[in-house]
Amino acid sequence: MTKLKLLKRRWLPVPSSAYDQRSAMFFLAPMMLVLFVVAVFPVVYSFWISLHDLKLTRPNRVPFVWFDNYIKLFTDELFWESVARTASFTVSSVLAVMVIATMMAMLLNEEFKGRRILSAILLIPWAIPYVANGLMWKWIYDSGYGALNGLLMQLGFIDKYIVMLGDTDKTMGLITNAFVWKEVPLATILLLVTLKGIRADLYSAAKVDGANAWQRFIHITLPQLVPGFALVMIYESMMAIRHFDLFFILTEGGPADASHVVAWQVYVETFRKLAFGTGSALAYIMAVATFLLAYFVIRSTSKKL
Q1: Does residue 99 contact residue 91 with C-beta atoms inside 8 Å?
Q2: Is residue 273 exposed (0-12), middle (13-18) or buried (19+ Cβ within 10 Å)?
Q3: Can you say whether the dihedral through the CA atoms of 82, 86, 92, 93 is positive or negative?
Q4: How much is the pTM?
C-alpha cells in the first residue's frame, strides 16, 4: 500500500499556478538576460570605473582610488558653476514647458474648427530628431544668414546682424528656447490626457454654484492636473539635467564656458580628456540628482492626490 501511494503522489498533476509561474520565468529568462547585459551590467561597471583613476592616455596604470574622483569633483569650482547653470537651465526650461503646455492643452481640450489640424502641427517639433532640432536652431541663430536676425531686422529691432550664440548673456536663453520648442508637444499630450479625465459634472456643479471661469480653473482644473504636472515635471527635469545635444551642436560649452553644464562636462572629461574615471563619477552624480528630484516630486504630489 505504501509503494502504491508513493506512485500515485509521483504522478499527481502539478498545480496550474506553479506551472504558469515556471512557464513565465522560462519565457522571461532571455529578456532578463538581455536586460542584464545591456542595462544592469554597464551601470554597475561604470560605478566600478568611477572608483578608479582610469585614463586612456595611460591604459596600463589604473589605480583604485576609492572616492577620490568624487572628492576631486566636489572641490572643483568649474563643477559647481556647471551645476548652477544646469539647475538654472532645468528650472527655467521646465517652468516654460509646463506653462506653455498647460495653455496648449486647455486650448486643444476645447471644441473648435481646425482643432485636429492644430494637433497635428503641434506634433511636428516632437517628431524632429534632437540632432536635426539642434542644426535647425543653429541655422536660425546664425549671425550671417540666420532667420531670427533677418526677422528682427525686418521688424526694426536691430540695424545689423548680431552674433547671438557668441553673447554670454544670451546663450543660455537661446538654448532654453530651442529645448522648450522641442519638448512642449509631448508635455501638451500628457496634460491633455489628464484634462480628458476630469469629470464634466464637476464643472457643471461649479457653474450652478456661480463659479466663473477663473474660479473653475483654480479650484477644479489645477488640482486635477497635479498627476499630469508631476509626470511632466519628472520627465522634463530628467531631459533637461542630462541634455547634451543642443549644447554640443550650438555652442560646445561656450562662449567662455557660458553654457558649460554638467552633461557637457561629462563629455569633456570622458571623450576629450579621456578621463573615464572622472566622467563616470560625474555621470553617477547626475543619476543620483535625477533620482532624488523624481523621488521628492513623487512624494510631494502623492500627498495631494
Answers
A1: no
A2: middle
A3: positive
A4: 0.84
Partners of residue 275 on adjacent β-strands: 55
Measure the N-to-C terminal CA separation of the chain; round to a whole number of Å: 63
CA dihedral 101, 107, 109, 114 (to 10 degrees): -120
Q: At a CB cut-off of 8 Å and minimum separation 6, what does 277 contact?
A: 49, 50, 51, 52, 53, 54, 55, 65, 69
8 A C-beta contact, residue 148 and residue 177 = no
Q: How far out from the chain centre does Cα 97 lie?
A: 12
Query: What is the tens place of the pLDDT at every residue in 68-106?
Result: 989 998 998 999 999 999 999 999 999 999 999 999 998
Helix (H, G, I), strand (E, B) or coil at 64: strand
Per-position b or e across 130-169, b if 16+ CB within 10 A of its CB:
eeebbebbbebbbeeebebbeebeeeeeeeebbebbeeee
Query: Cell numbers at residue 102, please?
Result: 498647460
- The answer to whether the beta carbons of residues 187 and 97 sit under 8 Å apart is yes
Q: How confident is the model at residue 15 (pLDDT cuts 50, 70, 90)?
A: low
Euclidean distance between CA atoms 268 and 284, whole angstroms: 15
Q: Which CATH class is domain 70-302?
A: mainly alpha
- Do residues 184 and 125 make contact, with C-beta atoms less than 8 angstroms apart? yes
d(CA 182, CA 229): 18
Cβ neighbours around 38 below 10 Å, total: 9
